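Task card 7
Instruction: Convert sequence to structure tokens.
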Amino acid sequence: MRRNQRPSGDRIRRAGGLWKTPRRRRIRPSALTGTWRPLLVTGCAAALVGTALTCANWPAAYEQLAGPGHGRGMSQHGAFDNAVQGWAAERILEHYYPGATLSVIPPTTVAVRLMTQDDSTLDTYADAGLQVAGRVLGPGEVAHLTALPDGGANVVVTVGCDGEVLWQTDTQDPWVYPIDPGPGRPAAEHLMLCNGTGYRGALGLATEGGVARTVNRVDVEDYLLGVVPAEMQANWADQGASEALRAQAIAARSYALAESRYPYAQTCDTTACQVYAGTVIEDARAAEAVYATAGTVLLREGRILRSEYSSAPDGGGPADIYTFEVGPTPAELGIVPGPEPMVAAAGALSPIDHEYLRLGGDTGSLGAPLGPELRLPRSVGNYRMFTNGIIVATPSMGARVVDFGTLQELAPG
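Output:
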């Protein structure tokens, strides 16, 4: 097994049923957390492809990774041109997927294989704490899971990513859960890997041919927050192409939910499926496209279309949707059975709706809504006012109750 952050071999030995480790320098997770820093690149567009920086003449600030269509389905360049010409997302999709229809699904989750974590331990923490093996870990405590042949996991909890061992156990539940499993949660609750990448939802281990696989089970709308800006340039919204981002959100949602690649996960996080970068690349402009199209999918004869798309530079053309695979019907979705099921509800709910229901709805402390959900300035998120409070939803904050002063800071005037 490839080593990740966990030492092995002579550095950790079983003695009396416990993991023993040499005393090491205590490191808090914050000291190990890596981030992607913005780059100013002139004369070309910049993109991270694996570990390489590439340049190309895209019509915006950086080159995106190719979509899963390899030239089939919607052309992202074509969608950009169409949107600038005034086409709505629905018209763009109708052009590239003739014969497909639109439908709305209930809230559901998707399981994603994190391929860069193959054959690794799962080393994760959250600033707000997390849950593992039936116990709650506090801030600064890190869970290290190693897959066991019986489908369970060995769990070692340390101070920081490489610090003192606090406790160790085996569990038949090889998953790490955030403090609150609901969608739209704030950044402090996201699960972070010790290499710096963060994920919404739960992280767990599976095995395939005796080799460990890391899986992220996440609300599909939260998942798209890490897909849309990885597959299409979020700053296209600043160039009059917001509708292209919305079309991308619908196509990506449909593609993922029609997938069925592995016994333990529907899809993966690379160009072999569609690129999913977790929370590190989330962008408010892409998030607006996800929220605006929440739950919307493409269907072929009542089943979700595996709507391929690509970065074909010539604008592409209409696809034969009968050459694409299909997945389940919307009625067959609901909440996918998993280690930490989320609350099902009829219709497509926004993160604000989810938080309102979690707090008791109109019989809860917030009381009745005072109006519809509205957009914050610069499309940084949405808000809704209630009799006794306000709920704001942004990619950085998640969905949370705020006071009027906070709203004034987010939406002056």
